[in-house]
Amino acid sequence: MHRAKIAILGTGYVGTANAVGFAELGYDVIGFDTDARRIAGLRLGIPPYREEGLGEPLARHLRNGRLTFVTDLAAAVEDAAFIIIAVGTPSRPDGSADLSHLDAAVESLRQIATDRPKIVVLRSTVPAGTSDRIAAQLPAHYQLLFCPEFLREGSAVWDFLHPDSTIVGAESDHAAGAYAGLVRSLNAPVMVTGRRDAELIKGGANAFLALKISFANEIANLCGTLNADALNVLQGIGADRRIGEAYLEPGIGFGGPCFEKDVQSLEHVARNSGSPSHLLQATLRVNDAQPRKVVDILEEELGDLRGAHIGVWGLAFKAGTDDLRSSLALRILDDLHARGATATAYDPAIESAELPGRTSIARSAMEAAHADALLVLTEWPEFCDVDPSVLAARLRRRIVVDGRNVLDGERFARCGLRYRGVGRSAVPDSDGAAAVGA
Ligand SMILES: NC(=O)c1ccc[n+]([C@@H]2O[C@H](COP(=O)([O-])OP(=O)(O)OC[C@H]3O[C@@H](n4cnc5c(N)ncnc54)[C@H](O)[C@@H]3O)[C@@H](O)[C@H]2O)c1
């Protein structure tokens, strides 16, 4: 069988999942990164981050030779028919996307270009118009596609192998057909469109998911005020197939490396193009305010946060990853510090990190619970398995504020804990007092 060679530039979350994913599909893949330490680790089969389902296929394809990792770009792309670019595109302070890594990658590709035609596939998330600009910088015999990546951290390889669709942004039928052929065995519908449309599909999709989260948080805040149960309300709303239940989850807001930066980037593009998006601005405003709500609840419960010591469960922006990029837990720790509290945090995926307010890191959930009150900031399943009576014996003020609505409030209340969720209705505790949502 002919195995098309694929070079991947950037072996971060997306690049490594793509490298392993394409190897799973039977292709020979070469990963390249400017970070030599990352490449050294990958060569030894060490995933650069915590990710379910990555370690085993990585090791297997290193052994069978389908996957290699190099620090020499020319060697990586020499025999490659496809060059996938998956470098980071973080936010600038004004909300625009910082494309400096992408520009550097394209410039280095240009410098080593040979006469052999290549298909370059941009998978980094970029503002509309970027692919056309990049295409103009590449040699004429290189064809550029923009094929957005929709995987989620925590299930990255599975998502790569089971996409809902493959979007191919192309200006050439030949290149579009070649990429569609490359991913044929994924059995996902392929939509071929212009590059600019594909860029807006990715930006619009992330903006819509972020909008759903901000909407859920506004409804939850209203439920808290009206003493209704946001989980019931949002479940009922999501049961309508026209709406769908996904991402209608109230909590501390959306953090992580994608939603906030991608909404900011689309909002920046809209503003600069003369048609500002009020909806995107509101989505970001609601999200900016949401992390403070859980600290407000804590302050309401404790009376005053000055001098209080708070146990924090969860630092990563979501369960299943050790990614701290734009994690709202960090902003909440900042806020706790600003209001005069200290904190000890526990996250099953994070052993060490520099945290705001000199927050210390505990080695277990129970160690972090030697505190006045507990704040839950990441939805790790293991937090739901904790025995609330053991927790009640540790927490001095017996207050639990569940920023992710993952704990069983009634069970906690039965053990004498005062449980507060986000937008959750009253749960009487064992002393008959009401534990209420925000
Ligand atoms: N993380 C996600 O869940 C996710 C999902 C979909 C799309 N995306 C998008 O994919 C892109 C990559 O995201 P990520 O989370 O994988 O980023 P990342 O920071 O984890 O990885 C980027 C990698 O690119 C490398 N790099 C930087 N400059 C380079 C160069 N010139 N040549 C080769 N490698 C270079 C870095 O060393 C790093 O290893 C971003 O545009 C992001 O928005 C991310």
Helix-strand layout with pairing:
Elements: E1 5-9, H1 13-24, E2 28-32, H2 36-43, H3 55-63, E3 67-70, H4 73-77, E4 82-85, H5 100-111, E5 118-122, H6 130-137, E6 142-146, H7 156-161, E7 166-169, H8 173-182, E8 190-193, H9 195-226, H10 230-238, H11 259-272, H12 278-302, E9 309-313, H13 328-338, E10 342-346, E11 360-361, H14 365-368, E12 373-376, H15 381-384, H16 388-394, E13 399-402, H17 409-414, E14 418-420, E15 427-428, E16 434-435
Parallel strand pairs: 1-2, 1-4, 2-3, 4-5, 5-6, 7-8, 9-10, 9-12, 10-11, 12-13, 13-14
Antiparallel strand pairs: 15-16
Helix pairs in contact: 9-10, 9-11, 9-12, 11-12, 12-13
The protein binds nicotinamide-adenine-dinucleotide.
**Secondary structure: helix percent:** 40-55%
Give every kind of bound small molecule, once each. nicotinamide-adenine-dinucleotide
Structural class: alpha/beta
CATH superfamily annotation of the largest domain: NAD(P)-binding Rossmann-like Domain
Domain count, please report it. Answer: 2
Number of contiguous helices: 17
Task: Report the CATH architecture of the largest domain.
Answer: 3-Layer(aba) Sandwich
How confident overall, as mean pLDDT?
95
| Number of strand elements | 16
Describe the model.
With 438 residues, the chain is of the alpha/beta class. It folds into two domains: 5-193, Rossmann fold; 208-435, NAD(P)-binding Rossmann-like Domain (Rossmann fold). The chain contains 17 helices and 16 strands. The protein has helices at 13-24, 36-43, 55-63, 73-77, 100-111, 130-137, 156-161, 173-182, 195-226, 230-238, 259-272, 278-302, 328-338, 365-368, 381-384, 388-394, 409-414, and strands spanning 5-9, 28-32, 67-70, 82-85, 118-122, 142-146, 166-169, 190-193, 309-313, 342-346, 360-361, 373-376, 399-402, 418-420, 427-428, 434-435. Helix 9 (195-226) packs parallel to helix 12, helix 11 (259-272) crosses helix 12 and helix 12 packs across helix 13 (328-338). The termini are far apart. Residues 434-438 have low confidence and may be disordered. The chain binds nicotinamide-adenine-dinucleotide. The site of nicotinamide-adenine-dinucleotide has 26 residues, from helix 1 and helix 5. Nicotinamide-adenine-dinucleotide (NAD) binds next to helix 1 and helix 5.
